[in-house]
Design a protein that fits this description.
Blueprint lengths: L14 H5 L12 H6 L13 H14 L3 H14 L1 H10 L1 H8 L3 H7 L1 H4 L6 E4 L6 H5 L9 E5 L16 H14 L6 E7 L5 H5 L13 H18 L4 E4 L4 H11 L5 E3 H21 L8 E4 L3 H16 L4 H6 L1 E5 L2 E2 L9 H4 L11 H8 L3 E4 L9 H10 L4 E4 L11 H7 L5 E4 L6 E3 L2 E3 L2 E2 L6 H11 L6 H13 L3 H5 L10 H18 L11 H7 L7
Parallel strand pairs: 1-3, 2-3, 2-4, 4-5, 6-7, 6-9, 9-10, 10-11, 11-14
Antiparallel strand pairs: 7-8, 12-13
Helix pairs in contact: 3-5, 4-5, 4-7, 10-21, 14-15, 14-22, 18-19, 21-24, 22-24, 24-25
Bound molecules: 1,4-dihydronicotinamide adenine dinucleotide (NAI).
Length: about 550
């Protein structure tokens, strides 16, 4: 990823400016000849080092940092200095670095964004640029931008509206495209669409870097986004728009507005739904039961719950069920109880799941009445799956499937230990956070984390290669199946529902290959179909070396 103002010019390819050019800088790895030719003599210490030796130094410095936030600040500064070294370091061990570059550390980094800020990265488009957005986008030095991750900062991880401080999210999310799936970093552009923030404390912080206004009403926001989307098409043709962490209602509305018109997706909605479907698919394969025969109860009926429910419906339709049959398999329960037709003020998206049933505000009662085989928590209500809930699910099912997806950890509906203990080891469990392994009766359970990084980097890689016109729900269903297919027997035996994190790049390539094959099969892809999709994708991967 390039910094603002890092337009490639002859000047930035030599001398001191070269050491300040993160894409070309090699630091102490410049050879004696290069130093002589490029005007670097005297600007570097004597030693000429290999990339491996530089990585060794980076790891040592990271080790010495007392907190992950400091590791984050260090890594971001490293990527500003030397992109190759940064990616060489993080790609060597993505499982270790993803939690630093992204969730949970990035949340902390966003909170203190105005305070830890060093230099601009990506682009900031503000309301005042209306009418000139295309012109502003042209200030970006790269023309071949293939992905823009755009956020308003309107709903960041469990932090709510943090406005321009949310910039850490598009930056981190795009770094994961490369760190996990080797998508070339030069084609990635993070953008913060600064429409103001509802967060009064932030607006009052003298170090806050964003617009100090309330966000506009929906219609004005939509007009601004329309211009932004149109400008992106014009300035960066073929670019995929990845919407991330917008306020829930904006996210759903805007996805519906653009999903059939332009190359775009929303990771909070579609990526999340896909990774949950991946976990469910793996769980059902473990117990040998088809999705079509399950009863699914959601605890929480917000944007995550509805998004997951809708993708499950799409998956069931793909298995031959009618829309009504597919929807009948799913019920939702929220802060006011079970969604049923007598409930006032249900949104259109919720109404389709409000099946005829007696009103209930008691989760255990609802479980006993509806007899779900799968219980999915997306409520932000920590501890809501208490012993009674887990025991009720375990009484009704030989192997209850219980996902407690709310995060951060204190919001999880139950912990892994509680799910395994209260179900007597029967539950197939996944969470939104990574819980430690649980030892019970001489057996080790390995709880899965429904982490979107199993899906979106692979989708990004497939999109990078196949250049689809659109990304459809089916692409996310294919991704979910590909993820489930990579959960090996040994992992399944320990209750794990997601692939191993030992070789993330391999996993992402396998998933990307399946998605790209699907894109070719369905006529979505615009690239020339290759003979061997996997080999072709492998030939396109970014490799961090000098
Ligand atoms: P949201 O605010 O749109 O919806 C929350 C829903 O939970 C609402 O329907 C609300 O009525 C319900 N709720 C709140 N308190 C409740 C209570 N005491 N009892 C019953 N229902 C209650 O939030 P959103 O975006 O749907 O996210 C929900 C949670 O899911 C968040 O904690 C988020 O972190 C988590 N999540 C996890 C993901 C993952 O694991 N990959 C991905 C996306 C979201």
């Amino acid at each position: 990823m390039h910094d603002i103002g890092k337009k490639e010019s002859a000047d930035s390819r030599r001398g001191i400016a070269l050491l300040d050019n993160p894409v070309r800088n090699k630091g102490t790895a410049f050879t004696v000849e290069e130093r002589r030719e490029l005007g670097l003599e005297g600007l570097l210490p004597y030693a000429v080092e290999s990339l491996e030796r530089q990585v060794e130094r980076v790891l040592g410095q990271l080790e010495a940092k007392p907190t992950d936030l400091e590791r984050y600040v260090y890594l971001i500064a490293l990527s500003d200095r030397n992109e190759t070294l940064f990616y060489r370091t993080v790609m060597a061990d993505p499982a270790r670095f993803v939690p630093i570059l992204y969730d949970p550390t990035v949340a902390e980094a966003c909170l203190t964004f105005g305070h830890i800020y060093r230099r601009a990265r990506g682009m900031y488009i503000t309301r005042g640029m209306k009418g000139r957005i295309a012109e502003v986008l042209r200030n970006w030095p790269q023309r071949d931008v293939r992905f823009i991750c755009v956020s308003t900062g309107g709903r960041i991880l469990g932090l709510g509206d943090i406005g321009a401080n949310g910039m850490g999210i598009p930056i981190g999310k795009l770094q994961l495209y490369t760190a996990c799936a080797a998508v070339p970093p030069a084609c990635l552009l993070p953008i913060l669409l600064d429409v103001g923030t509802t967060n009064a404390a932030l607006r009052a912080d003298p170090l806050y870097l964003g617009l100090r206004q309330e966000p506009p009403p929906a219609q004005e926001l939509d007009e601004l986004v329309d211009e932004f989307v149109e400008a992106v098409q014009r300035v960066f043709p073929g670019c995929c728009l990845h919407f991330e962490d917008w306020k829930g209602t904006d996210a759903i509305r805007l996805l519906n507005r653009y999903r059939d018109a332009i190359l775009c997706y929303n990771d909070d909605i579609q990526g999340t739904a896909s990774v949950v479907l991946a976990g469910l698919t793996a769980a059902l394969e473990i117990i040998g039961k088809p999705l079509a025969e399950q009863g699914i109860l959601f605890f929480g009926a917000g944007s995550a719950g509805i998004g997951i429910a809708n993708l499950i419906v799409a998956a069931l339709r793909g298995k031959g069920l009618s829309l009504a049959e597919a929807r009948s398999r799913i019920s939702l329960f929220d802060i006011d109880g079970l969604l049923e037709p007598s409930r006032p003020q249900l949104s259109e998206a919720q109404k389709v799941y409000a099946h005829r049933a007696a009103p209930s505000r008691d989760l255990v009662e609802t479980i006993e009445t509806l007899k779900p085989t799968i219980l999915i928590g997306v409520s932000t209500k920590g501890g809501a799956f208490d012993q009674r809930v887990v025991e009720a699910m375990s009484r009704l099912n030989e192997r209850p499937i219980i996902f407690a997806l709310s995060n951060p950890t204190d919001k999880a509906e139950c912990t892994a230990e509680e799910a395994y203990t209260w179900s007597g080891g029967k539950a197939l469990f996944a969470a939104g956070v990574q819980f430690p392994d649980v030892e019970m009766n001489g057996k080790t359970y390995h709880p899965g984390q429904a982490n979107n990084f199993y899906i979106f980097p692979a989708l990004g890689l497939a999109t990078y290669a196949a250049r689809p016109r659109l990304i459809t729900d089916e692409c996310f269903i294919v991704a979910a199946q590909a993820s489930a297919d990579q959960v090996g027997v040994e992992l399944r035996g320990r209750g794990m529902l997601f692939p191993s994190q030992a070789n993330i790049l391999e996993t992402e390539i396998t998933t990307a290959t399946r998605i790209a094959e699907f894109m070719f099969e369905k006529g979505l892809a615009q690239a020339e179909p290759p003979r061997d999709v996997r080999a072709w994708i492998e030939s396109l991967l970014y490799e961090p070396h000098y």
